[in-house]
TrEMBL record:
<dbReference type="InterPro" id="IPR035940">
    <property type="entry name" value="CAP_sf"/>
</dbReference>
<dbReference type="InterPro" id="IPR018244">
    <property type="entry name" value="Allrgn_V5/Tpx1_CS"/>
</dbReference>
<protein>
    <recommendedName>
        <fullName>SCP domain-containing protein</fullName>
    </recommendedName>
</protein>
<dbReference type="InterPro" id="IPR034113">
    <property type="entry name" value="SCP_GAPR1-like"/>
</dbReference>
<dbReference type="InterPro" id="IPR001283">
    <property type="entry name" value="CRISP-related"/>
</dbReference>
<dbReference type="InterPro" id="IPR014044">
    <property type="entry name" value="CAP_dom"/>
</dbReference>
<dbReference type="GO" id="GO:0005576">
    <property type="term" value="C:extracellular region"/>
</dbReference>
<dbReference type="Pfam" id="PF00188">
    <property type="entry name" value="CAP"/>
</dbReference>
<feature type="domain" description="SCP">
    <location>
        <begin position="59"/>
        <end position="199"/>
    </location>
</feature>
Length: 212
């Protein structure tokens, strides 16, 4: 698959504990794109993840939208709205990640166009992981500390943040799933139109400083 050179992926993997196996517990901020794109119609692994009930998924979706829009308001960006189609794409891919223990971007397009995508994974070595929407959003938004508003451009260390507040994005979808042993939780958020597009003035226009 050939990827548009102007688009860059970003991911995060943030464990709860760091003190057992340091090699395994290294947080990651950037992953290569997958060789082949995932399609949300490929559901071969869905039976191997541990699903959350509809009530829990609805709560996560509501919280994710509210937290995004709270941060977007600080950056003079319009509130996002939930798209059920983007929701299905995000949920299917979260379940795929939970079933396979992979952590990479899907490469999915939406209506044939670039779709933004944020990923977050948290895990523990024993017991059941906490499903925390606030932790995922905080991890993404805290990348603001690394973003240079005076000379804004794409950075793999700040791509979650810049997509969250990208002014031209209008819709989002939310997915969440647990691994079979409930020790890993995967969040996927999808955005359309997708952000982080490199071009003259795109970041100046779409990623405004707080309180503008």
């Amino acid at each position: 698959m050939i990827w548009d050179r102007l688009l860059r992926p970003w991911t995060s993997k943030y464990p709860e504990y760091y003190y057992e196996d340091l090699r395994r517990f290294q947080p990651r901020h950037y992953y290569e794109q997958p060789v082949m794109p995932y399609t949300h119609r490929d559901r071969r692994h869905r039976h191997r993840h541990h699903g959350l009930d509809q009530s829990m998924r609805s709560t996560v979706t509501k919280e994710m939208l509210e937290l995004h829009n709270r941060h977007r308001a600080r950056h003079c960006a319009r509130p996002l709205t939930i798209s059920q189609r983007l929701n299905r794409i995000a949920q299917d891919y979260a379940e795929h990640l939970a079933a396979t223990s992979k952590f990479e971007h899907s490469g999915t397009k939406f209506e044939g166009q670039h779709m933004g995508e944020n990923l977050y994974m948290n895990w523990i070595s024993d017991g059941h992981v906490t499903v925390s929407t606030k932790a995922a959003v905080k991890f993404w938004y805290d990348e603001i500390a690394l973003h240079d508003f005076d000379r804004p451009t794409f950075s793999k260390e700040t791509g979650h943040f810049t997509q969250m507040v990208w002014k031209d994005s209008r819709k989002m979808g939310v997915g969440v799933a647990l691994s079979p042993d409930k020790r890993e939780v995967y969040f996927v958020t999808t955005y359309f139109p997708g952000g982080n597009i490199i071009g003259p003035g795109t970041f100046e226009k779409n990623v405004l400083p707080p309180n503008c």
